[in-house]
Design brief:
single chain; alpha/beta; Rossmann fold; 7-stranded mixed beta sheet; 12 helices
Amino acid sequence: MLSLALAGKPNAGKSTFYRAATRAEVDVGNYPFTTIDANRGVTHARTDCPCLARDERCGNERCHDGKRYVPVELLDVAGLVPGAHEGRGLGNQFLDELTNADAILNVVDASGGTNAEGEPVDVGDYDPVEEVDFVEREMDQWLAGIVDRNWEGVERKSRSPEFDIDETLTDLLTGFGATVADVTASLRELDYPEDPIQWDDEDRAALARAIRARTKPLVVVANKVDVAPPENVDRLRETDRPVIPTTADGELALRTASDAGVVDYDPGDREFGIVGDVTDAQREGLERIGEVMADHGGTGVQAAIDHAVYDLLDHVTVYPVQNETKWTDGSGTVLPDAVLLPRGSTPPDLAYAIHSDIGDGYLHAVDARSDRRIGEDHELSEGDVIKIVSTAN
């Protein structure tokens, strides 16, 4: 399962985002380090279900009238303060927790209502643009520190005739989620001495930055737009980062109201309808949320998750079935599963994603939309419905 991590300074709204996205109960407070131990939960990326191409919706519990929700892991960790890479606050714990995340949702307090330490200040007294590079910088410096502390071992290995720098650095960086391909591609982008003994601090820092950018891409979640000065949001959007204006409070309110049958709303919708009895105060609050959604195309919570999965990580959703005519599994369930795969994946990749035995016994695959056999090197696309024929079926 893909893993996304919420990162940012304390009191930026990470835990509220987490509660809204997972509907899990966690501590939320207006003070730094409300979160100490990491929270892990399941949220969902939203995409169009293939059942939209059929006469009837599939009825899957994760399909809401053609809106398909695909599970991904969401991690909420302790807030980050300046100097975290040196151990300030809960920095080392925070950064260690991020090593297994595939992408980072950098939650920024767009209102400017909290300072760099996460302490409340008057709205507008702090510039949220300062936070855009903050998480990247701390992660880069933390990883550079790891590389520095282990570089003596790299130098020792370089004296061996069998020394391979890609292999050695991959061994060093595997704990951060780097693969051989990540290391090779990063080194290809850099200008560095062939002999590790000749590397200096900047060479190692450049390697850390390149590996972090490749293995931990970030999207900026401009949270609290419901109380943020419009100029703050505009300036955040002018940075060279993907920025998603967000109201985690608004999303949590809508999901809570939807669970209670008060509003008609699915995560990621651009608008909602009030369908239950509400007080005047509740109606006023919901109308304010609706105004924010109209300005920004939704609450932003689902948009941030979707951007991380489908844009930053460039994944596609593929639906394995056993019956290519009815699009069902062996029990007759229509479109029972949805699998997220990196773009460029092939039918054998899907087979292994289902189960290693299915992959080992792979024979061929059928495109259920066209009812045609497809080759092993066929590149799967978003929304493909695929039957895998395997000796393990």
